Automatic annotation (TrEMBL):
CDD domains: ACAD10_11_N-like (cd05154). It comes from Sphingomonas desiccabilis. Residues 1-23 are annotated as: Disordered. SUPFAM superfamilies: Protein kinase-like (PK-like). This is Phosphotransferase family protein. It comes from the Bacteria. Residues 75-305 form the Aminoglycoside phosphotransferase domain. One of its GO terms (molecular function) is transferase activity. Gene3D superfamilies: 3.90.1200.10, Phosphorylase Kinase, domain 1. Keywords: Transferase. Pfam families: APH.
Length: 367
């Protein structure tokens, strides 16, 4: 049995006074879900975890995690294509378990130990990442590698318009969202020795070639035009940062009271790279929408409390100490192009809308 323990013991997994009956919202959606026209309601909530051997898990947790006492109960969080995620409850404490997917034909999955060790490395920085407790690479325990981390109680906001709040309170949540992204990108990667745990800088040109080589990139003349321009106009790299890869609102847990970000979730796509990748992904919801979900820039203003895209960028630059630069338009075109490819097969009309918006930003960048 191979076990790696996280830092700081297990106390952070205890339920806090006043929250004993509250269930955390830790449901994972596909990375492109916020930009899609497809119904995602079936991905919310939990379901019975009939694919988990509770007895074997309890034996392992008793050895691996200080203070663990059964019996345990568990449910699987619905959604999440790359990793299976479960809530584990005991009479006094609660945990989250992350496990490799069961479908070998599913989306590409990075090693779980990489995600676990990144969460370990982030603990001394003060960034709100869940505390990892123990890693198991012995497939004989549950059939797949997995790790256990603290459960963080908090609120997930599924709708980016954040209904049901005053404009001022809504604005505070948007500010907290972009401030958390700026705080992540302000962390200096070198002292964390991330190269020792498998994190090397992702070269943007290699990622771009991967996306433009997809058959969908030539499915329409509009997509082909954007693909060719992106390859010709590749910008210079910004100084590398820790990039989350999926920094949408639904991957943030806000504190039960107040607007602090209690935890940032779902780190399986994280890496080292140009931080404008994350910033453009956040801004995509501002510049492109659907009939049912208008672009947030169309709703921005003091009456709604929703900041404009320009206001989000300005706040990010102040908080991170970075200059988004003129290349941000290229990154927006690239992000919208990728989303258009993901929608091409199942929602071609929406894909065309995304491609048109991508070309708008390509033109702004000099195409």
């Amino acid at each position: 049995m191979t076990v790696t323990q996280g830092r700081g013991g297990e106390r952070d997994g205890e339920r806090q006074p006043g929250n004993r009956g509250a269930a955390p919202i830790l449901v994972l959606l596909p990375a492109e879900a916020r930009m899609t026209t497809r119904d995602t309601s079936q991905m919310l909530g939990t379901r019975p975890a009939d694919d988990l051997d509770g007895a074997a898990l309890a034996r392992w947790m008793r050895q691996a995690i200080d203070g663990f006492e059964g019996p345990l109960a568990y449910v699987r969080f619905a959604g999440g294509r790359r990793n299976r995620t479960y809530r584990i409850d005991t009479p006094e404490r609660a945990y989250v378990l992350r496990r490799r997917p069961s479908d070998p034909q599913g989306p590409a999955v990075r090693p779980l130990d990489r995600e676990f060790r990144l969460l370990q490395a982030l603990q001394p920085t003060g960034f709100p990442a869940p505390r990892p407790l123990a890693l198991c690479t012995d497939a004989s325990v549950l059939g797949d590698p997995f790790y256990v981390m603290q459960l963080v109680e908090g609120r997930t906001l599924w709708d980016e318009t954040i209904p049901g709040m005053t404009p001022a309170h809504r604005r505070e949540h948007f500010d907290a969202w972009i401030d958390a992204l700026a705080a992540l990108h302000a962390i200096e990667p070198a002292p964390l020795a991330l190269d020792a745990i498998g994190f090397t800088e992702c070269q943007l040109d290699r990622k771009l070639r991967h996306w433009t080589a997809r058959p969908a990139a030539r499915a329409t003349p509009e997509l082909a035009r954007i693909a060719d321009w992106l390859l010709r106009a590749l910008p210079d790299h910004a100084p590398p940062a820790i990039v989350h890869g999926d920094f949408r609102l639904q991957n943030l847990l806000f504190s039960q009271e107040g607007v602090d970000v209690a935890a940032v979730l779902d780190w399986d796509q994280a890496g080292l790279g140009d931080p404008r990748i994350d910033l453009a992904y956040v801004l995509a919801r501002w510049v492109s929408g659907t009939e049912l979900h208008p672009a947030l820039d169309e709703l921005a203003g003091p009456e709604s409390g929703i900041p404009s895209a320009d206001a989000m960028v300005a706040r990010y630059c102040r908080a991170s100490g970075r200059d988004a630069g003129a290349a941000l338009d290229w990154h927006l075109a690239y992000t919208l192009f990728r989303l258009a490819l993901l929608e091409q097969e199942e929602a071609p009309a929406h894909s065309a809308t995304l491609a048109a918006t991508a070309w708008t930003y390509a033109r702004r960048a000099g195409a």
